[in-house]
Structures are given as structure tokens and as C-alpha cells.
Design goal:
Elements lengths: L2 E3 L2 H14 L4 H13 L17 E3 H5 L3 H14 L6 H20 L7 H11 L1
Antiparallel strand pairs: 1-2
Length: 125
Amino acid sequence: MESFKLSKKAKDQLVTLKRRTGLENWNVLCRWAFCVSLAESSTPRDDKIPADSNVEMTWKTFAGENHQVYLELLRQRCIEDGFELNDANLMKIFRLHVHRGISYLVGSPSLTSISGMVDLAATRI
């Protein structure tokens, strides 16, 4: 896993989430989004997601010190959804989950603070 770029739509949604929650870092919001999407049992739609924003981050920036945990979560989800484990599929599925998760987060009207994010996570467990 190397670097990935978000779509302009996702960037705009992250700006909204930053304003609502007070969380300032793209990577933290993307981690939440990834986990929220993984909590859904359905596979994200295989949409063509453009990489048309100026928000780009490395896997290391996204995952931080827990990079191995996030990678294993992604691998497990790929296996469960029937995808071959290769770099291309891992990156594709990762981007699909991050983008779907961002949409879920921004679409949650009660998400107006960090505690709202914790409440959202607790209801998905």
C-alpha cells in the first residue's frame, strides 16, 4: 500500500466533517470513515472514484502506528467479499470503503461533535 488520493467530493465532505466535529486531521477522519464502512455487511459499490482533489496521503499517514491493524482489517474484508489479495484490489477496496464511509459520516445529521462520532461508532458495534 502506497499513497492514495481522494475525490473532490470526498474532500468537500471532509471539510464539512472537520467543521462539524472539530477534528482537524484528514487522516483521523478517514480512519473513522474506513471503520464505519467496514462495519456495514454489504460490499461498497464498485464505482469509478476520481482522484481529482489535492488531498493525497500515504498509507503510513492514514494508518499511523496501527498500520498493521488497518491492513489486516482490509485484508480480512477482501477475503470475506471474495476479492483476490493483491495490491491493486487492496487499494481499490480501501478507497471504496474510505469514500463510502465519508459519505456515511457526512450524511449523519446527528454527527456534530467528536462525542457524536463515538456515539455513531457505538451504535454500529
